[in-house]
Amino acid sequence: MISKDAITALKRFGCGPRRGEAAGLASPREWLVAQLDRADAARIDDADLPRADQAQRDHVAYRRERKRQLRGLDKDNREQMDDLKRMMGPRPAVDYYSQEINARTRHAIETDAPLVERLVGFWSNHFCISAAKNGRVRAMAGAYEREAIRPYVLGRFRDMLFASAQHPAMLLYLDNEKSAGPNSPVGRRRSRGLNENLAREIMELHTLGVHGGYTQEDVTNFARILTGWSVGKVDSPRGGVFVFHRRVHEPGAFTVLGRRYGGRGVDQGEAVLEDLARHPATARFVAGKFARHFVGDGASDELVGRLAATFRETDGDLRELTYDLIASDEAWETPAQKLLPPYDFIVATARATGWRPQERQMMKALNALGHKMWAPPSPAGWPDEDDAWVSPDAMLERLDWAQRIARRKAPREPVDRIAEDLLGPALDDHSRQVIARAENKGQALALLLMTPGFQRR
Amino acid sequence: MVLSDLSRRQFLAVSGGLAVSPFLPGIAGASGRDPRFLTGILRGGVDGLAVVAPVGDPDYQNVREGLAFERSGPNSGLRLDGFFALNPNMPQLAELYRSGEALFVHAVSTPYRERSHFDGQDVLESGYGRSGVGDSGWLNRALEVAAAKKTIDSRGFAMGAQLPLVMRGSAPVLSWMPPAFQTASTDTRLRLLDIYTHADPTLAAAIAEGMELDDLVGGEDSAREVMRQSRKMGGGGKVRSYRTTGTVAGKVMSDADGPRVGAFSLNGWDTHANERPFKGRLGRQLEALDATIGALRTEMGPVWRDTVVALVTEFGRTARMNGTSGTDHGTATLAILVGGAVNGGRVIADWPGLSDRALYDGRDLAPTTDLRAILKGVIGDHLGVSEAALGEKVFPGSRDVRPVRDLIA
């Protein structure tokens, strides 16, 4: 007999059930709590994946070489272009991107600590970058998540905030490498100026939230303080990593949220980050997002308040935050409502059916379903409301994709038995009947993958 | 500064700015018609000087060396007036220009003055004065305002896997894309609809609407049929896929019960290398764009006379050719209005000239017309949106940018 809690643990807090998994889950809450000691499960150990600095170097080297080779070639001459392609080998911006997608997906499909992987998904979207920014960011999009997000999902919020704000992917994505203090040595000589993008998004999206009580003056001053936070030129000794350029740093002390920050180096900005991480508005904003991500849009103020208090009292300990969420009855009693985002749907399908994506298949499926990996529509990340992914076209596309997988993985045994095994009480009687009466097993499996019981968590 | 007298005069004539919004409540659309408005986002930065060339500018041949229209022969282009000529790869657009149904706006740009695609498209589509401000688009907000007056259907339409920013917002949007996978049969769809009708009304509504939209396009196998027909009509892969976009958008937007406002995107304009505006890369792009316009014209049928299609891009490109026979990211460029409701047959340009001193930052065509003034004029006069709403809601903070009137016939 499959308990409702087992399904909640596997779906709401996991990456979806595998065959037989729900029946074997005697104490779902303990199973989740045990995963909180599995910080190592967030790591992807794959020696072939390049670090962010290496990815950038390879990307820039490729572009230079291609430009050199293109001289004297005719771009419309297919033969010449094919030769060039063969000679140049794979483009890092595409190749690394695709490899990283596969590594992440494989990890999510195979992991035995799926809660940890869900935390990665949440925080990666909270501190999102976009692979659509340019080839350089795309080449290191996966490295960003491995370096700035995964090590900290059961650690401290402050550490993740620092790691993301000082990661080359974030500095390039939000243009801070271009920002120069108007009174800095470089700013005075050339007419380069302030870019507020990173400062604003850190306050609005990463810490305080848009109603967090900061002003435009706070943003501008924080942007001044962040001038000089940049990325080393790829040919330099600190190529492709975080550097502090003193010569573009705006000199002086500035006030942010009522506190004056002196100092002349990277420590000035770090002091602001420390305070933002500990600000009560940050606790509230982060707790609200976190609760709604797992429990749904209707997460109670009481639950959010409790998580915010934990966040404050533990100095942003994300393990404690997660523990409190799992410990709340609300998280277990609220019916499943959030429609799986396409990535999560694909992963859940793989876990349920045994299907495994081949090279580039994952990237293509994500693009077709409108969930391009690491490429959300804005710095606010992918939308997270319960029905954010419901649209006529997207649902039909999902069905088409489900049918494609179901045909390949058409099972021998009756699909209603598989349905029971995977979803137990989460499957309503009517869905069960429609599946049982399907024309063939392929259709039955496709319908199962599309039921509300499978699609909502 | 070199001026195209004709263009200058026309520009002044249409931007007098004294006209009050002619919208009368209770009439369908501002002009008494049942308006259709489509926006095509040309992504990558269109080299406007290679599409509509200022062949009468004395600096033109010099600045555009390697990319210029020839003085005679097949690559001399189609003369639009005494000053401008159209790229010869766009015969269908030329025909519409001759019949007064196409209008070009040159030296136009959004308020964005840097050179990132990402931010440039953000400004182009969000309708805000700078990037990273909003997560909704001006077209959706315009639809919201127009639909609130109940003059047009409240649903928007978009082509593509991802809703383009310009069409995102609170007005509901039907989106359609050529299916990436083999489509599920109607039988399977109906069985799923049965499941959802009992258990999940939200998902049921989505599936039902999706099936309705497929019917607008022409039924279950429509997508494959559209693509098959496009293949029969010939042309390269790009021409075929662009034409499909035009055909599908035309089918949906011409339906009596369908949406009235829509958007689509056409990629591939980022011509950094081997641009070749006649027989090469850009030449093919323009040929494909021409096919899109032709397909739209055909599919819209009788409602073409109520239609405006705006074709816009995030920025232009450098005036001079770069070291790889292409052009780099620039500033001002071209915008195209086409459709039976367009008061066309002319080029609007406050021409800045192409001399070294006239170029923006010494490298780009200088912007002299704010794209928002054009779009505000179209939305105001075609969809009946008030100037106040245009300045505050549709293009926030643009009150000082006066709509260009007289763009709608």
UniProtKB/TrEMBL annotation, chain A:
Region described as Disordered: spans on this chain: 55-79
InterPro entries: DUF1800
Name of the molecule in the record: DUF1800 domain-containing protein
Species for this entry: Rhodobium orientis
Automatic annotation (TrEMBL), chain B:
UniProt cross-references to InterPro entries, sorted A to Z: DUF1501, TAT_signal
Pfam families found in the cross-reference section: DUF1501
Top-rank taxon, per record: Bacteria
Coiled coil: none
PANTHER family reported in the protein's UniProt record: BLL7424 PROTEIN, DUF1501 DOMAIN-CONTAINING PROTEIN
Protein name as annotated: Twin-arginine translocation pathway signal
Species of origin: Rhodobium orientis
